[in-house]
Write a structure and sequence with these properties.
This is ABC transporter permease. It is a multi-pass membrane protein. Belongs to the binding-protein-dependent transport system permease family. The chain crosses the membrane at residues 12-30, 97-120, 132-152, 172-191, 229-255, 275-301. It is found in: Cell membrane. The protein is an all-alpha fold. It is built from 13 helices and no strands. The chain has helices at residues 2-28, 34-38, 46-55, 62-74, 87-122, 127-141, 144-158, 172-201, 205-212, 217-246, 249-254, 260-270, 273-301. It is globular.
Length: 308
């Protein structure tokens, strides 16, 4: 196990530096001058522009700039945005909101997706299975912004079960509807993935053996079928956590949620490269850590898996 952890740590380090270097290069090597853009229609005085370039190390070569950035990341100093606001302060406001939103979406797709997927797998070929497959296919086919507007109109305007927009109200009740919308597409994938795995494992030899021994039906399903069916599902959920964090832009825009997606979008519009790179770096770290946790969960789900 220790050797495996060290191996995974080495992979995480390589991927982290490679991904951050690529993102940093894509953002900072664009032909536009971000300092000149700060002045808008009026050109900044030369001494002011020179001072800003020195402050953000834009007068240095690319690798020197990247070194200063990585040095700041490890000291939790993400610098200052071009608007003069510390990027760390912006993160402290935006990330907790999106984390809560992503956890609601992850709970929806994990709990409900596995539940309906298991039922569909147990009733393969029957009307319930056909209905679940049809509904999940519709959810996958419809764009997320269409699902968001439909949910907003039906449950917010017509039924008035949920608030139409979030705004400054960041409690669980206000984030519930956008969280459900964010997790709908992934929920459909989890349902179909769980259903196919359960239907396949029901015909396995070890299931027939367990049934022949007289084990109760519920024990066969939970202990033998479900446990072996969850390995690809957990893999998908671990990878999807990072996608939920970074892919909440559309959902946050529809429901006016002041989270990571909206902040990155505004930073891109304003040309605030330090903010964009810093947010993407944290998203990369979340993605890498979640995948390491998923790999460690494999051994808990399937004792046959050994990391030696």
């Amino acid at each position: 196990m220790l050797r495996y952890l060290l191996s995974r740590l080495g992979q995480v380090v390589i991927v982290f530096f490679g991904a951050t270097l690529l993102i940093y290069a894509l953002v900072f090597l664009v032909p536009d001058d971000p300092i000149a853009a700060l002045g808008g229609d009026r050109k900044l005085p030369p001494d002011v522009a020179a001072g800003l370039r020195a402050q953000y190390h834009l007068d240095q070569n690319f690798f020197v700039q990247y070194w200063y950035y990585i040095k700041g990341v490890f000291s939790l100093d993400f610098g200052t945005s071009f608007s003069g606001q510390p990027v760390w302060d912006v993160m402290k406001r935006a990330f907790p909101v999106t984390v809560n939103l992503a956890l609601i979406a992850l709970a929806v797709e994990a709990v409900l997706g596995v539940f309906f997927g298991v039922l569909a797998g147990l009733k393969k070929g029957k009307w319930f299975d056909t209905t679940i497959l049809a509904v999940s296919l519709i959810v996958i086919a419809v764009p997320i912004f269409v699902l968001g507007f439909i949910a907003q109109y039906v449950f917010g305007v017509k039924l008035q079960w949920f608030p139409v927009t979030v705004g400054g109200n960041l409690d669980f009740y206000h984030l519930l509807l956008p969280g459900i919308v964010l997790g709908l597409v992934s929920f459909a994938y989890v349902v179909r993935l769980t259903r196919s795995q359960v239907a396949e494992n029901l015909t396995a030899d070890y299931v027939r053996t367990a049934t022949a021994k007289g084990l109760p039906r519920w024990r066969v399903v939970i202990v033998h079928v479900l446990r072996n069916s969850l390995i690809p599902v957990v893999t998908f959920l671990g990878a999807d956590l990072g996608a939920l964090m970074g892919g909440a832009l559309v959902t946050e825009g529809i429901f006016n949620v002041p989270g990571v997606g909206g902040t990155i979008y505004q930073a891109v519009i304003r040309g605030e490269a330090p903010t964009v790179v810093s947010f993407v770096t944290v998203l990369i770290l979340i993605y890498l850590i979640s995948n390491v946790v998923v790999d460690l969960l494999y051994a808990a789900l399937d004792p046959r898996i050994r990391y030696a």
